[in-house]
Design a protein that fits this description.
It holds the Pfam family CoA_trans. The protein is α/β, with parallel strands linked by helices. The protein has seven helices and eleven strands. The strands form two sheets. Strands 1, 2, 3, 4, 8, 9, 10 and 11 form an eight-stranded mixed sheet that branches. Strands 5-7-6 form a three-stranded antiparallel sheet. Strand 3, helix 4 and strand 4 form a beta-alpha-beta unit.
């Protein structure tokens, strides 16, 4: 089996290319791979399409990637929250494109992509602006909207523990989009709080099998994004 451990975050994201589609895990700050995102800021790939639950908070993590003008389009459910300051301004100025997707539909589009399902029908968004220009079909006298699967070139994911073969377990709800994003990306890059010995993870507890993971980097003391946002602390590239 392949040892998937890489030595640092810069090495982990080195081959992300201009124009790539990238899935980024996280529900707010929970499960957000802050260190991998910051490494991507330093790496400099541009014109990225990002698939995420939200559009970042404050000036750190995903918000920093957007603020550095590296994201051309974001596909997400919650582009604006009470602490979103970067995305709203860029969107109003026409500097970034938005595809708004209901949260459950977003998760299912990613899951479908990872499962080889090209599209599916859902009742969500029927008779709303989000259904415009999409195929409609009736089942049992109810109307459904056709939604297409999402796949990505890369996924950046945070987990709690991993072994060298890429088997992952998560910390409670910090799992959120991580498992389905791992499945739906050509290359999955994971930051783990701890890399443990093979066999220390009970096979019954593995959430993401190593077959879906390509690189793992250990970040034993990951940033607390909520604290960074609260402090408005900025990183060296600023």
């Amino acid at each position: 089996m392949i040892n998937k451990i890489v030595s640092n975050t810069a090495e982990a994201v080195a081959d992300i290319f201009d124009g790539a589609t990238i899935m980024i895990s996280g529900f707010g700050e929970a499960g957000s791979p802050v260190e991998l995102i910051h490494a991507l800021v330093d790496q400099g790939a541009r014109n990225l399409t990002v698939v995420s639950n939200n559009a970042g908070s404050g000036h750190v993590g995903l918000a920093a990637l957007i603020e550095n003008r590296q994201v051309g389009k974001i596909i997400c459910s919650f582009p604006r929250t009470s602490i979103s300051v970067v995305f709203p301004e860029l969107y109003r100025n026409g500097e970034i494109e938005l595809e708004l997707v209901p949260q459950g539909t977003l998760a299912e589009r990613i899951r479908a992509g990872g499962s080889g399902i090209p599209a599916f029908y859902t009742r969500t968004s029927v008779n709303t602006q989000l259904a415009e220009n999409k195929e409609l079909r009736s089942f049992n006298n109810k109307e459904y909207v056709l939604e297409k699967a999402i796949v990505a070139d890369f996924a950046l994911v945070k987990c709690h523990e991993a072994d060298k073969y890429g088997n992952l377990i998560y910390n409670k709800t910090a799992r959120n989009f991580g498992p389905v994003m791992c499945m739906a990306a050509k290359t999955t890059i994971v930051q783990a709080r701890k890399i443990i010995e093979v066999g220390e993870i009970d096979p019954e507890c593995v959430v993401t099998p190593g077959i879906f993971v390509h690189r793992v980097v250990e970040i034993s003391n990951p940033a607390d994004e909520s604290k960074l946002v609260a402090e408005e602390r900025r990183y060296p590239w600023k």
